[in-house]
Amino acid sequence: MDLQTAKARAKELVAQMTAEEKMSQLVYNAPAIERLGIQDYNWWNEALHGVARAGTATVFPQAIAMAAAFNPELLERVAEIIATEGRAKYNNSVALGDRDIFKGLTYWSPNINLVRDPRWGRGHETYGEDPCLTATLGKAFVRGLQGEGEYLKASACVKHFAAHSGPEAERHGFDSVVSKKDLAETYLPAFEQTVRAGVSGVMGAYSAINGIPANAHPLIAETVRGDWGFDGYFVSDCGAINDIYQHHHYVETAPEAAAVCLKAGCDLNCGDCYAHLIEAYEQDLIDEADLTAAAEHLFTIRFLLGEFEPERPYADLPYDLVDCPAHRAQNLAAALETAVLIKNENGFLPLDPETTQKIGVVGPNALSVSALEGNYEGKASEYITAADGIRRVFTKADLRVSPGSAYLASEANHWDGHRNMLSDGIAVAKRSDVTILCLGLNPQIEGECDDKEGILLPDAQRQLAEAVCDVCENVVVLLLCGSSVDLGEKVRNHAKAILCGWYPGALGGLALAKLLAGEANPCGRLPVTFYSAQRPLPPMADYSMAGRTYRYLTEAPVWPFGFGLSYTTVVYESAAVSAMDDTSILLTATLKNTGARAVNEKAQVYARYTDSRTATPNFQLCGLQPVTLAPGEEATVAIQVDRYWIKAVTEDGKRVEPDGEITLFVGGSQPDERSRALGAPACVALELQ
Question: Start-end ranges of CATH 2.60.40.10 in the chain?
Fold first, then answer.
């Protein structure tokens, strides 16, 4: 069904409703209207990295991990599987008459906010710190989830509009004070790009933008629907409309809050404040035209999903597809592509499963399932932890496992929480030829409502890690986390190798073990900057981009955005512009794998430009292309660059052609000095004429 047909059918259906019936449909748990053949429908569902909160599903690597793959095609394939499983679960629940929460086809994913601060607890739900990477991956996820058929396979919803990335504890009344430049250059582009690509939903944030709550902001009508041409539905975050009078104090009453949001263009309330629309209507704060417009937006989506068709689309997808062997195989492939090798001293990895005799697996993430899952997760049929995976791959090794510490607490005597495990971890490490230190965080430490106090590895784990380094020469760190973590100088320097696995999904432990053994070649890249804990961070409440992320950082980080090693070396031999017009640039680059292992190389294009009218980024990612190369293979690849990403943004928020020079860099990393010092090959530079 095309959009115009869906709109017409929605208009016809809504015209038959009373004002009260229209109001009833503007809440997430919309009731049935039996006389019109409308079933009850619950809009709230989640699919961040798999169908969430509704029982069994394939649990893919967390969003930040999939961002590290630097591969939009991978994300699109993952989203296609999520939509397939979502339809299969929907078919089953509808057949059983279950239309409850988390059973519908409107998924409030992906999260395309940017990680401007490494302490933000929800950073692992996102695609990292860069607007181009986030927009590119966000569009891929939307394409995969919504499909390209006659009907939407599922409905995607990008969140949280806009300028929303902490502090979590203050989010219900927080005001994001943002300059026009930062808003246009950093906080809005991913929303613009995904809206223009056809996403069917946008969710508003809890916070305000320059004094106006997000769900009542003129940006909804003027920019999202006006400038960008959005045809979908706009939904509040859950409880956010209550915040408008309870915490923002933007208005005084619930009816006023409901009215100001509805009139601004917020069609759907996740929460209960739209129950007060009847009072707002009676007080002439809204009129029936406001109700009609919102209801038409919502029913357009329901028609596009095929809800009212005699033969429901995708009804032939059976429940057997949920977490099936083929989907688990794709899950494993995704996890293999998302890990980032950030240190490999003298080629210490890969380890040989045939000759490695005694392996210690030590740390609180060794046997952790929560560190596989991330948040907004489903429940997989099988979980393989780091220790489980190493046991499966290194079958000839004498393997011992110890948590060694709790995640956070380090009391010497805590009988109930078993926190005093340090000596046990040291014992395992001391007897081992190689110790795999499984360190990091979990979603209980960083997550919704929980920002990190700092970025240094928690004391208990750092004490364990340093003690292990004292008794074992050969230490490999497996870092499972969703954000920038500083291991501390002693551990960074002593470890022979460091592999960042993020929250790698249900089969993540097997993927990490295969990477350690060289059964696969690490190919991920960092989607966030890893900072030093010694560097003072800007105040978290400050939304200025000055001094934040690789684009405006003023000193060298520990590990840079875009960086990642592998077990081979790819040399970028040349690059050239093959075509160019007002909207895009087509580059060709010649790469050669000079090593003995196949590699999935992540070619990246960065722009450096000058503009006398405004500050410009150090570098700006503007294109990326995965390239598979056999040992010794040379290939010439095409990389598309959208000129949108190499325009300067002036202080008044206008995106303009730079008035200075533009240099493009093509390589496997940023063209920064720190990446070179860490072992990344040089980039090829070319001047745009």
Answer: 570-687
- Distance, in Å, from the CA atom of 29 to the CA atom of 478, rounded to the nearest integer, reads 42
Residues with Cβ within 8 Å of residue 341, at least 6 apart in sequence: 349, 497, 498, 499, 500, 515, 522, 524, 564, 565, 566, 567
Place of tokens 């891929």: 140
Instruction: For residues 46 and 452, give the distance between their C-alpha atoms in angstroms, rounded to a whole number.
Output: 24
What residue type is assigned to position 259 of the chain?
Answer: A
In terms of residues, how long is the chain? 689
What pLDDT sits at residue 279? 98
Beta bridge partners of 156: 107
pLDDT of residue 420: 73
Average pLDDT over residues 16-26: 98
| CB neighbours of residue 287 within 10 Å | 12
Q: Per CATH, the architecture of 330-549 is what?
A: 3-Layer(aba) Sandwich (3.40)
Give the DSSP H or E segment for 497. Answer: strand 497-500
Pair type for strands 155-161 and 475-480: unpaired
Pairing state between β 662-667 and 684-687:
antiparallel
CA distances from 138 to 118, 135, 150, 283 (A): 20, 5, 22, 41
Rounded CA gap, 99 and 85, in Å? 16
The H-assigned helical ranges of 520-574 are 549-552
Residues 408 and 461: their CA atoms lie apart, in Å, by 7
Contacts of 359 (CB under 8 A, 6+ apart): 390, 394, 397, 398, 399, 400, 432, 433, 434, 435, 436
Q: Please, where are the H alpha helices in 147-239?
A: 180-182, 189-196, 219
Residue 81 DSSP label = H
Active site residues: 237
User: At 689, is the pLDDT very low, low, confident or very high (cuts 50, 70, 90)?
Assistant: confident
pLDDT at 187: 98
Q: What is the CATH number of domain 570-687?
A: 2.60.40.10
Q: How many Cα atoms sit within 13 Å of 354 on the Cβ side? A: 2
Residue with tokens 């695609």: 127
Euclidean distance between CA atoms 577 and 148, whole angstroms: 32
CATH code 3.40.50.1700 region(s) in the chain: 330-549
Architecture of the 3-321 domain: Alpha-Beta Barrel (3.20)
pLDDT one-digit tens code per residue, 203-226:
999 999 999 999 999 999 999 999
pLDDT tens digit string along 58-71? 999 999 999 999 99
Residue indicated by tokens 């596989």: 372
Structure tokens at 609: 């430009």
pLDDT-derived band of residue 364, with 50, 70 and 90 as boundaries? very high
The ranges of the chain annotated as CATH 3.20.20.300 are 3-321
Over residues 284-312, the mean pLDDT reads 98
The SS3 of residue 418 is: coil
Q: What are phi and psi of 538, to 5 degrees?
A: -60, 155
The answer, as to whether pTM is greater than 0.85, is yes
